[in-house]
Design goal:
3-stranded antiparallel β-sheet, Aspartate Aminotransferase, domain 2, alpha/beta
Length: 464
């Protein structure tokens, strides 16, 4: 069905396609398709038309604001339009959508159906992470090692506490990569019988990217099961399941694949999934039963997010139309470069010195009395640009995302808005410290005396 959807997109006449998706991005290069496990998809077009968020049914001033956030994100008009129909959860057409989504995700992951299963789970990405942690670790015989260098790693620790999962949380600095030696020491000599290790790939607290392939090698060395939270990276950053020895990967519908919120999904190694049977501590988040239900009759056990799944099927087709993960990553990287040049010129300092990803960037607050993030945020909002507050615990920061259906031209629009707002607030580059300003030379006072006019001889006669 994915191939059929792509064929439909390509078959639409260029004029009609522009009317539907508006403001396309033109390139003269051919589009390379993603390499799947069993085949290669190549879209042979000389001009690429990437659907944009522009809504032709609205005027220029009525367009949605651009979301420079970690999610939910700006989506294409065609993705939103895919939700403009109703399908029953037991309808064969909807079951076909689920199968299409599963097949598309396996292709993006570049893994085989014989080895991995795709399990969609209602709710946000956090639901998916909690579903995994509460379903796969045997609380009597196993334990979980959590590697955390941000708030989303710490959230996994909170989940483990709630579910009574024996665990250790290896806390690392938010601006540094996890310490491999510390991880190995814990796996080798820790007090708990670890069976699973969990880490966040793209930690959007700071914007850091963790090296899941290297960590995965270490986990595999000690024969543990590896869980990767790739919430904000999957579909925009290449993830090598084989090199990372990944057993479970969790992501969300509203991140780099550019769908809408409504569900998360788990790509699980079938052998690891089968070994987890009976370990779940919840009813609705039991991933083994969720998988068995969808695998059996194609249906969710409980009400599915029908419209989100239909939008996601369209988003997957557009990912392939764009050229796969590599081409999407290139667009995100361009977005980040455009932003960095402006922010650097304005004097904003990135929070991270190393391991900066291109999903989202954290910037430190300027050190001047005119800075006020609330005012900065609201002023940018008036320009139709939405950014995000900071989340790191040891510095005052704000965050700007580079993902979603935004392009370098949109980032330039944000940059222009940032410069205008900073100038208006007299902050960042436009702040002038009174103590550093050169004192003006005092004006010398001068007194002007008006001379009395000379006496006039008019009308006066002098006798000789």
């Amino acid at each position: 069905m994915l191939a059929h959807r792509l064929a439909m997109l390509r078959a639409v006449p260029a004029r009609r396609l522009r009317a539907l998706i508006a403001r396309p991005l033109h390139t003269s290069c051919a589009v390379r398709g993603s390499r799947g496990a069993n085949r290669t998809s190549v879209i042979n077009v000389k001009t690429r038309l990437i659907p944009s968020s522009y809504n032709p049914d609205r005027g220029t001033k009525e367009q949605d604001k651009l979301l420079f956030t970690p999610g939910p994100l700006t989506t294409s008009y065609s993705v939103k339009k895919a939700m403009m129909r109703d399908l029953g959860s037991r309808d064969q057409a909807f079951i076909g959508v689920i199968r299409e989504v599963q097949a598309g995700l396996l292709e993006v992951a570049r893994v085989k159906k014989e080895d991995f299963a795709v399990i969609p789970m209602q709710g946000s990405g956090t639901f998916g992470v909690e579903a995994i942690l509460s379903s796969v670790v045997n609380k009597k015989t196993g334990a979980l090692l959590i590697i955390a260098n941000g708030s989303y790693g710490m959230r996994m620790r909170d989940m483990a506490r709630v579910h009574g999962i024996p665990h250790t949380c290896l806390e690392c600095p938010e601006d540094a990569a996890p310490d491999l030696a510390a991880i190995e020491n814990e796996l080798k000599g820790g007090k708990l019988p670890y069976t699973h290790v969990a880490v966040v790939h793209s930690e959007t607290t700071s914007g850091i990217i963790n090296d899941v392939e290297t960590i995965g090698d270490l986990v595999h060395k000690y024969k543990k099961s590896f869980i990767v939270d790739a919430m904000s990276s999957f579909g925009g950053v290449t993830v090598d399941f084989a090199r990372g020895h990944i057993d479970y990967l969790i992501s969300s519908s509203n991140k780099c694949i550019e769908g809408v919120p409504g569900f998360s999904f788990i790509i699980a190694r079938r052998s690891a999934l089968e070994a987890s049977k009976g370990n779940a501590s919840t009813l609705s988040l039991d991933i083994h039963k969720q998988h068995a239900g969808i695998e059996g009759n194609g249906q969710f056990r409980f009400t599915p997010p029908c419209h989100s799944l239909m939008a996601f099927a369209q988003a997957l087709a557009e990912l392939h139309l764009e050229g796969g993960v590599e081409e999407r990553a290139r667009r995100y990287q361009q977005n980040q470069r455009v932003l960095y040049e402006t922010m650097n010129a304005l004097g904003f300092e990135p929070y991270l010195k190393t391991n900066q990803g291109y999903i989202i960037t954290s910037y430190r607050y300027p050190k001047d009395p005119h800075w006020n993030f609330g005012a900065f945020y609201e002023e940018l909002n008036k320009f139709g640009c939405v950014i995000y507050p900071g989340k790191v615990s040891n510095a005052d920061c704000f965050r700007i995302g580079h993902i979603g259906r935004i392009f370098p031209r949109d980032t330039k629009r944000l940059c222009s808005a940032i410069e205008r707002v900073c100038k208006k607030m007299r902050t960042a580059k436009f702040y002038k410290d009174p103590a550093l300003e050169k004192p003006k030379r005092p004006t010398r006072a001068t007194t002007h005396v008006k001379e009395a006019p000379a006496p006039s001889n008019a009308g006066v006669s002098t006798a000789a």
